[in-house]
């Protein structure tokens, strides 16, 4: 693998030929594509232009595909599915029961504090929690919940994303329940659900298995 090169669209240069010969001997050869090539095929940089190279490039994208649910008025809330059971497998209309509106830490670690049979339960996340998502979502399932949402966690990816300069965005891995759909949503979306359900506890949300384009 090489991360070298520069402008020049000639497959006959010495480094491009070297890449071809390495490939001819059965070795996979990856080379960074660089920022050239806007004019089309065979206009990118050298030696990525070599017919023996696998050119690797990246693009800037302001949106990513993500699963979503719909509020009663049709607004989209994106969610990241749990890693065990996953998210919702088909469209489901359900109320959302907020477990504890004043929860500080460990929301749901001892199980739901309200009846949740047939409903999706909403828990808040705090970095100081002593239980993980699997514990609280499985307890929700045992109490009869049909789904489990956790908010205040942003997009779930399982690592810490560092963005220059000096910006750290924390991402928390969501395991979720082993028997019911689970998902994580942002703090803002969690607060939106709090507002909706405070005004109407019977409000129906539509949980989907569809993908939309969420802003990065």
TrEMBL record:
SUPFAM superfamilies: PA domain, Subtilisin-like. Residues 105-193 form the PA domain. It comes from Rotaria magnacalcarata. Residues 3-77 form the Peptidase S8/S53 domain. Transmembrane segments: none annotated. It comes from the Eukaryota. GO terms for biological process: proteolysis. The lineage of its organism: Eukaryota, Metazoa, Spiralia, Gnathifera, Rotifera. GO terms for molecular function: serine-type endopeptidase activity. This is PA domain-containing protein.
């Amino acid at each position: 693998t090489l991360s070298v090169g520069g402008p020049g669209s000639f497959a006959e240069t010495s480094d491009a030929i070297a890449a071809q010969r390495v490939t001819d001997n059965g070795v996979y050869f990856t080379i960074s594509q660089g920022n050239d090539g806007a004019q089309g095929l065979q206009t990118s940089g050298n030696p990525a232009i070599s017919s023996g190279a696998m050119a690797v490039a990246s693009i800037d994208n302001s949106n990513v595909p993500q699963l979503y649910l719909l509020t009663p008025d049709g607004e989209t809330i994106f969610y990241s599915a749990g890693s065990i059971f996953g998210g919702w497998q088909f469209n489901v209309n359900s109320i959302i029961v907020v477990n504890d509106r004043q929860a500080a830490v460990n929301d749901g670690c001892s199980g739901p504090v309200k009846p949740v049979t047939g409903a999706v339960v909403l828990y808040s996340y705090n970095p100081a929690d002593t239980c993980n998502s699997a514990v609280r979502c499985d307890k929700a399932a045992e109490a009869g919940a049909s789904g489990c949402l956790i908010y205040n966690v942003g997009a779930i990816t399982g690592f810490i994303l560092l963005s220059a300069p000096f910006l750290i965005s924390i991402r928390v891995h969501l395991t979720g329940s082993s028997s019911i759909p689970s998902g994580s949503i942002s703090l803002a979306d969690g607060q939106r659900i709090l507002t909706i359900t405070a005004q109407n506890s019977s409000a129906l949300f539509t949980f989907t298995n569809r993908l939309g384009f969420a802003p990065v």
